Amino acid sequence: MRIGYYAHHHGSGHCRQADKLAALLPEPVRAQFTVFTSVSAADYSFSNISEAQVVRLAPEDERADDVLKGRAGQYWQPESLHYSPVGSRDIQARSYQLIQALDARQIDLMIIDVSVEIAMLCRTISMPYLYVRLTGVRDDTPHVEAFKGALAMLAPYPRALEAIDTPAWMPKKSLYLDFISTVPNTELTRSEFLTLLNNLTDDATPYREGAPIITVIKGYGGHQAIDACLPTLRELLPDAFIISLGPIDDDMRHLVDIATQVKDVRPFIIHSDTLLMACGLNSIAQVYYEQTPIIVQPDARPHDEQVATANSLIAQGRALSWDDFCKTMQNNNGQLPTPTATLQTVPDLDTSAAALMHSFGDYDDTKAWFYEWLLPKLELRPER
After folding, report:
1. Per-residue pLDDT reduced to its tens digit, 327-374
2. This protein's superkingdom (predicted)?
């Protein structure tokens, strides 16, 4: 089967997820895998597929010459779509790009991560699709219709992180992929890690022996909520060695000892005393099964997706909220809180995701794949 993957342009997480899934594909299926995205090559370069396998779509931002803006209000906005400007030459161009490439590349099945508009376009042209269902409150009409139109939903997180108020039918039509791991990283000893810290050049100050190490991890989909915590973090822990990984506002750099960007965050996760981070799924996937205590401060996202993830982590005892951390620090006379809970059994992380991706190599026909491989794994059945 030839698989297409639509990766949303917000941040780099959707492209990164496509990249991780591509690594699980068998050859020659991987060679026929196509990613559709409006993220530029400068903003994300794929590791597991060639640039020739990426269709860089036209943007979908509103234009001054649109006849109607993307959200034109009641009586002008279809309830099945989140965003649908009228007369947008860019959206006309990207839709044509997509349909033309689907035909030229003979795509059998799309994975949509994420866009209800692309989902509706695929359903309209009779292109089968799987829809990536993220965490959060997604019971609005556009999401529900996109979910209904899918052959199944893919949940790229453990079932334990499913929100308690998720409508019952959605998990029944979902495959839970758990967290998808990346290529194994190099393990550093504590001594090697401290040497790494002292060799960093970006805003680096030497590590002070005995100082607790607090690593602040931020992504590229937004970091303002985390940056806003830094003054209080420094006030609560004046002697801590604070490391900022990812983007940081210039007026916040003086509050940290190191501000840098690295390709491999695992040594920082393993050797820090505490982590402060948002709740993007790619970030949480890297820390969920580790021992390091986590403080979560979710970034603002549509449908409260990071809030839902944070609440699940807190309910499991795997993380403290930022507010609870601050209260604990004040009550403990500045002592770091005791470690948060960790899961006792680390699953074989790629089992579900690898099984899905390998199944595409076992079938040439989408209908046979759907009825023989996918449908037996779901708890809902279509009418026949």
Report:
1. 999 888 888 877 666 654 565 656 899 999 999 999 999 999 999 999
2. Bacteria
From the list 155, 146, 108, the residue with the least C-alpha distance to 312 is 155
Range of the domain at 137: 3-181+349-377
pLDDT tens digits, 243-260: 999 999 899 999 999 999
pTM score of the predicted model: 0.86
Q: Number of helices (H) and strands (E), helices first, in the chain? A: 14, 13
Inside any domain, residue 382: no
Do 255 and 129 fall into the same domain? no
Burial 275-309 (b: 16+ CB within 10 A, else e): bbbbbbbbbbbbbbbeebbbbbbbbebeebbbbbb
Give the chain's end-to-end CA distance (angstroms, integer): 23
- Total domains present in the chain: 2
Same domain? For 8 and 141 the reply is yes
Q: What is the pLDDT of residue 344?
A: 45
Cα 109 to chain centroid distance, Å, stands at 21
Residues 37, 9 share a domain: yes
Do 37 and 56 meet the contact criterion of CB atoms below 8 Å apart?
Answer: yes
- Phi and psi at 119, nearest 5°, equal -60, -45
Q: Is the dihedral of CA 26, 123, 14, 274 positive or negative?
A: negative
